[in-house]
Amino acid sequence: MKKFLILLMVTLLMSLSVPAFAAIGINVNGQDVYSDVPAQNIGGRVMVPVRLIAEIFGANVSWDEATQTVIITTGNYQSQQSPGVGQSNSTKDAQIATVEREIERVKSDYNYSRTTVENQYQTEKARIEAALNSEIGRAASESASSGIRGSGAAVSRREHITESFNSYFEELERWYKTEIDKINEDEAYELEALESQLEELYR
């Protein structure tokens, strides 16, 4: 068994320059790999998470607090499993775990988006209701001062005010439904791709 001591992150030198703002993907043996810690371009060098890469290739990763060192251990596991199976299963397990983490991240992100839209909707609805009640109150005060409270004219005015605010409520409902439908559609699209990838890995 061999041990390689690697400090914190693996540095990949690339012959082509990568803009610092570009999203950097990770592809291993033709398979896109997702990581909760993204690859980064720092000073012209691409930095990738050492644990993700090491585990994909069947290595064990640990952290030595005393020496502040990442320890990557590789070995031949064929004595415990059928020839060629150990490395393959370990790699596949790591890829499955990565996709499962990405699925949870996607669900969490879209739940947050739905909560944000719901909060905006409730806030705006409360604002419109407050404005409606204010207008109705003002109209009631004016009717009282004119001595027509409870009259047909006062009731008609109240109904007119309420009807004029209905368009604001309807517009708000349309906005809310559109935003939620879009979030649900985008989430379903992303999850479908990830779940398809996961299904392929389980085969």
Summary, kept brief:
It contains 3 helices and 8 strands, in the order ββββββαββαα.
Q: What is the β-strand count?
A: 8
Written as H for each helix and E for each strand, in order along the chain, the element string is EEEEEEHEEHH
Strand order of the largest sheet: 1-8-7
Could you say which overall geometry the principal axes of the C-alpha atoms support?
elongated
Rg result:
30 Å
How many helices? The count is 3
Overall pLDDT? 75
The helix fraction, in percent, is 55-70%
Distance between the termini: 30 Å
Beta-strand portion reads 15-25%
In total, the number of domains comes to 2
Instruction: Give the structural class.
Output: alpha+beta
Q: In this structure, how is the largest beta sheet organized? A: 3 strands, antiparallel
* Low-pLDDT regions: 1-21, 76-87
Description:
This protein is an alpha+beta fold and 203 residues long. The protein has two domains: 2-74, no CATH class; 95-202. It has three helices and eight strands; from the N terminus they run E-E-E-E-E-E-H-E-E-H-H. A three-stranded antiparallel β-sheet has the order 1-8-7, with helices on one face. A three-stranded antiparallel β-sheet has the order 2-6-5. Strands 3-4 form a two-stranded antiparallel ribbon. Strand 3 (26-28) and strand 4 form a beta hairpin. Helix 2 (85-146) packs antiparallel against helix 3 (152-202). The longest helix has 62 residues, at 85-146. The chain is elongated. It starts with a strand and ends with a helix. The model is unreliable at 1-21 and 76-87 (pLDDT under 50).
